[in-house]
Specification:
About 30% of the residues lie in helices and about 25% in strands. The C terminus is likely disordered. It has a single domain, classed as Vaccinia Virus protein VP39 (Rossmann fold), CATH 3.40.50.150. The protein is an alpha/beta fold. α2 packs antiparallel against α7 and α5 packs across α6.
Length: about 270
């Protein structure tokens, strides 16, 4: 296998590995809405190769491998997240690879062993951490470069451009979102999540639907679809329909599904 150069960068996620790992069980919406909706959007990956951008501690990379993907690579800028994911892989031996690299840099998609070899690229809550339009385009360019030349799919869970800033709206789901008002492209926002006894504080940036679609098309994607999340049947039975009303009325995240088109426009990196 080709050698992949790793790039260590400082990340706001370096100190929250434990909270991130525990959040899937501690926050019911993550399993019953987020994971349920995301995995439905990704679809059957049996026999396919998948790159998971912003893989964090490897939660979805491991699930995609267990779902039948023949090769799964998780990429994250946080070396602490990648170290944790690798240690768990050493114990469990699922066959998932992990790479420390900044996916906002289009060059990440051109790395040996990454460029042009994947059937599907995924990204859960990665695009909201693009602090500039260039970074947003960079994430999309990395995704397109990693996909096979003849096409493939990019499935991303992104911040809903119309999320609620009412401090009580998402509290029953264990989180609170706030953003600079009036909102503008790239406006800063903040997520506070309560994970067991820990509090997760994360900064993000707000981008419109038009900005997402522009970045995707500039990278070589077409047939872009926005998908609203759904609640699993298990989640409905466990918590009741009323529990999920706020979230389904105004979810904090939506799913993007983009089909890859020609790669010709990716011959040169996006200007910095």
């Amino acid at each position: 296998m080709s050698t992949i150069k790793e790039v260590a960068v400082e990340s706001q996620f370096d100190t929250v590995v434990a909270a991130y790992e525990q959040s899937m069980e501690a926050m019911p919406f993550r399993e019953h809405v987020e994971a349920h909706s995301f995995l439905r959007a990704v679809g059957d990956v049996t026999g396919q190769s998948v790159l998971d951008l912003g893989c964090g501690s490897g939660l979805y990379a491991r699930r995609l491998r267990a779902a039948g993907a023949t090769r799964v690579v998780g990429m994250d800028e946080s070396t602490a997240m990648v170290d944790y994911a690798r240690q768990r892989e050493e114990r469990e031996g699922l066959g998932v690879e992990f790479l420390a690299a900044n996916a906002a840099d289009p060059a990440a998609g051109a790395l040996p062993g990454i460029s042009g070899v994947f059937d599907v690229v995924t990204a859960v809550y990665v695009l909201p951490y693009a602090s500039t339009l260039t970074a947003l385009q960079g994430f999309c360019a990395t995704a397109r470069r990693a996909l096979r030349r003849r096409g493939g799919r990019f499935v991303a869970a992104v911040l809903n451009p119309g999320f609620s800033t009412d401090p009580d709206w998402y509290r029953r789901y264990g989180m609170e979102l706030s953003a600079q008002q009036p909102s503008s492209e790239g406006a800063p926002g903040h997520l506070k999540a309560w994970v067991g006894h820990e509090v997760l504080d994360v900064d993000f940036f707000c981008w419109s639907a038009a900005a997402h679609e522009h970045a995707l098309r500039a990278a070589g994607f077409g047939r872009i679809a926005w998908i609203r999340p759904q609640v699993s049947e298990q989640g409905r039975k466990a918590y009741g329909d009323a529990f999920w009303t706020n979230y389904l009325d105004c979810p904090h995240a939506l799913l993007l599904h983009a089909q890859a088109g020609p790669r010709a426009e990716l011959a040169s990196p996006i200007p910095q």
